[in-house]
Input
Amino acid sequence: MADNQTAVALVDYTSDSDALSALVTDALAEAKAQGASTAEAGIHVESGLEVTVRMGEVETVEHTSDKSLGVTVYFGQRKGSATTSDFSAAAIKDTVRAACSIARYTAEDEYAGLADADMMARDIPDLDLNHHWNISADAAIELATECETAARDCDKRIVNSEGATVSSHQALRVYANSHGFIGGYPSTYHSASCAVIGQEGEGMQRDYWYDAVRDSIDLNNVKAIGKMAAERTLRRLNGRRLPTGNAPVIFAADIASTLAGHLIAAIRGGSLYRKASFLLDYLDKQIFPEHINIHEEPHLKKAMGSAPFDSEGVANGHHVLVENGILQSYVLDSYSARKLGMKTTGNAGGVHNLIIDHGDDSFDDLVKQMNKGLIVTELMGQGVNIVTGDYSRGASGFWVENGEIQYPVEEITIAGNLRDLFMHIDAVGNDVDLRGNTRTGSILIEDIMIGGE
Output
């Protein structure tokens, strides 16, 4: 009962932006009173419900709640930070005092400080990110049960389940600093997922499927999610290994985003000023074929990665990273930008809605175009070196010949260097995955080393 009461209380908090704005304003005033030259404060509150059903039985019902206030103060260019989950006036005062104490004993850093005042967001758009789902635990259990049942009933070869999960979360973020900036926005995240195990003969495989949305009315039918999880599991049965060699490879849309993630890691300010990137000094140079364009669109309505400003209050918007294959911009917050002698790109806290423009080809078109090669549907391991660009990961998927899938493949590795992989992208499919922060279709790369038998 206590958990339920906590969750209800926090649900109320996540809709009270005025109360949170007052708290961060109080924190800034306290920082000034304690001698800080400038300060910033951010609050995040979140509540949620998550239920999991496994083998037809309720496995977990979780009401989650979280809240935190972070304060950063500057004494000139000496910085101190502290956090608290207690929003009382006394706790906020103590938190500011702790941050100030740290700052007074910290060495000066010429690059430290708030983002420049003229970079602050002045117009904060409504991005339609907040859609409360008034779902009870019982209703969520019913949906999870339907999802798992659809998967288990799909085929007699589905012999076990890792469960189906339905979740709903809502959050409110408010940020303010000494420039007079204050802004906040609520958001919601709803999802359904299922993972099952299939067996044929001595061989067993598992796979999963899921959907994630801002608005519950956009969530895929849970029975369809369960069925897809089962079908993905079944098609992996009786996998084979491949002989070692080179071949074209298609990264399926739901994992192609990992390639974009490696790009962002390499052009992030922290990697660049530490000289720990394989793309160091590649600005204005060709790193992809001419047909590749990559940009950031943080203001897309209802999108999973949208945000009206970055975590320093800096205005964000359309941001071109790669145009006609040429690297046009880095990914910088104010600190890394100063270290590099540049301006922030509004990316404190990361990128928002990274988009790789696609062509007209469907996934089936890419398979036909590849003719003979490997479709990768799962990657394993962390064999990626952002300093050198060396890439080696475990993989599974499907072998293609004559433009058609022939059989599942397992226990192989794919390897190369990210510079080469980027430059040898042949096509990006139109089967764009919209469930995350990166939007890309399947990616066909003309040649990758495959390690097998």
About this structure: The radius of gyration is 24 Å.
